Protein 1
Amino acid sequence: MIPTGSAVSSLGLTLVSSKSHKATKQQQRDRARRRAQRQEKVAVQRQAERKRTGQAVVVAVVALLVVAGIVLLSKVLGSTDDTTDASGSTDASGIVCTEPPAAPGTPATYELPDATEAEGRTYTAVVTTNCGDITVDLDGTDAPQSVASFLMLAEDGFYDDSPCHRLLASGNTVLQCGDPTGTGTGGPGYGYGVEYVPEDGSYPRGTLAMARTGDLEAGTGSQFFIVATDSVWPPSGGGYTIFGNVTSGMEIIDHIVDAGVTGGGADGSPAQPISILEIAVTEKKA
């Protein structure tokens, strides 16, 4: 029997429904396959990212270890070379020296102050230099004339901007200052004699003493020196008046001594220039 149209129609619907069901399963398989592919791709990407991250961490750790090693090595061994920057010069000691001012030139002429102005008194003086502060104690008991002279000149600004013109760097090692001309020939316009000289001729490191010419009676003026190493000058040669001692800042003197004399040698101007910028003095109270 030939099916009627409605039967054909019904059969046709059944056939269409069957094909749609088959297509849906195929699509699901395709989607599942694509999903698996995507998941695999994501997994590969994540694995690659983890690898790159791990490599970056390793590189960062290595870099930090290298930097830490360099810092530690530099602290242990210290710097072997002096360095210079815009603010001045420095070395492993940490001392920084700025550019010194020009020497003031010939100073005014003064009259010798009365020794009694400092007799029996003690003072602290802060000597500010272009390389830092040097603090000294002054004793007017044994050397009242030297202390009185130093006080007057410091308070009047005589020493301001004056260079320390001489470094004696062999044997008895000293740094000499106190001449505003920077030549080693300048002075305050007066002179006086030697006061206190140690009997054994011993001048320990840090001693503050007055320089002088060969005239023991009137060869002392404004120039003084700081002893960098334990030194000896026999009293038979006249000696040098001790009027104080350095209480802090000897590392600055060491820095100047280590730099040596200009052009080499053992006696001359310091290769590292140092100048007194100002001196502030206060009296110690009993």
Protein 2
Amino acid sequence: MAISFEIIRQGNDFSARANAGPQFFVGRRVPYEGKVGLYNVFGKSRLENLNFRSADFTEQFGFWAEFIEPTAACEGRNFLTLNTYDRAGFTFGFAQFAAHVPNGDFVLYFRSLLQMPDAANYFPHLGLVNGRVCSVENPQAPKPLESDASTEPLMKYLNPDPAEVEDAEVIAAAKLIHWTSNSAAARGAQVGEMIASYKSIMDRAEKRVGVHGRSAALCCVLCDILHHGRGGNMTWPLVQTALASPKPFEALIAIGAPKWDSRKQKLKSEIRARPDFEALRWDRKAGKFA
């Protein structure tokens, strides 16, 4: 049965109730570079403290759960992190999956959610048709919300108006927050997608620049650069130059504009706190660190 959500607004803060249950925080209305949206991770946020910890997932995913943790720390760790105020339109999760990228991490994660048994409780009007997220209000004529070329319809479904916070935006956010808070499987979907994304980056890196025998420490920086996008259009040439330098780890850390310096230092600190990252090496043939 579909869950009913009620919106509660107090000034710029939005909360919700599911089926008249306890109230929970969704996000605060914030302006950003001409857009307006929701944000829920800040100093005195009332957001539930539901953080990713690799130890909770190593039994299922092995070292990969540890490998993604430095990036998780840079992104704030909280499984319920929400941002709807920038060009991505809708960003969610401990790794801040962004909805604007066709076949990107948010799309892949959302597809996995829609395959879960409780999907109809949260998104009864959505479903997967031929592997695509679709509106299925009319089952005879499903409407794709994403394709290889665009996620514009999906972004509009989640966040109809980038210039203001709409009820549909709050409800979409509330659904994902409530589902993630109450379902270990929904949290596992975030972890699984983040690991799949980093495995994909490692495959691409092997083809583009060759990383066989490189340390997990160095590869973690490379993956974070690609996940965060701070290398821009020059990512691979910059990575190749860094790998050929006398100090490749430091050179990789340096990639990205000065505005990302605090993130880069956080990443470096998190990796240095894990000595096994330096000992483990990427095995191209096995497709893992050993």
Protein 3
Amino acid sequence: MIFKPIKPKKVSSQIAEQIRSSILAGEFSPGDKLPPERELAEMFGVSRPSVREALNILAAAGLVESYQGGGTVVKSLVETATGSPLSELIKVEQERALDVIEVRKCMEGWTAYYAAQRGLPEDLRKLEGIVSEMERNLEGFKPSQDLDAHFHIVIAQATHNIVWLHLMQSIFDAMKEFQQSVWRAVYLTDEDHRILFTHHREVFEAIRAKDPERARDAMLKHLSFAEQRSSLYVRQAKE
């Protein structure tokens, strides 16, 4: 007899597989919180202990991390166990942030390229919503720093490549403090904010038109501008 009896899968394993599939499909980004155990139990129609066991399975695989009183957070696929050495390096040597922007130019040019090829209607709606909110901020003289970061992450999501998404999220997390300082120091005028808005609109329009080459060129134009302004900030900080 070459056949073996079929063993039914544990409920917790089935729950873990569904959540894992959602994470790997990009439905949850690094840093996103999963619904609370009670809500997950209701969604799956199971007991909370089964959900808790499923989350333990995912935590053991390095996909999520649970915090006492803080819920369960999706981890980056490229995160190290010791946190973000890159973030610490940038704090000590701000010039390294310029190295990161150089890498971003290589990565994000192609991220925009693939987003233009693969972006779905819901991806385009998200990008359009961000660009529209940026335009409203211009009218109210409000900075769009958080929208800027979200725009780049949504483009990574629009590639439907989970590695792009997790790499981009990790880089943005590492650069967050530096980027906040740059926004406060060198993006000061209405003209600066209009230039940034125009760049983002051009990237979005190229992605919406499904023109990969134009999307890549528009992204490189934007990041070259960001590189110049970041270099200015680093020089000013040294003086």
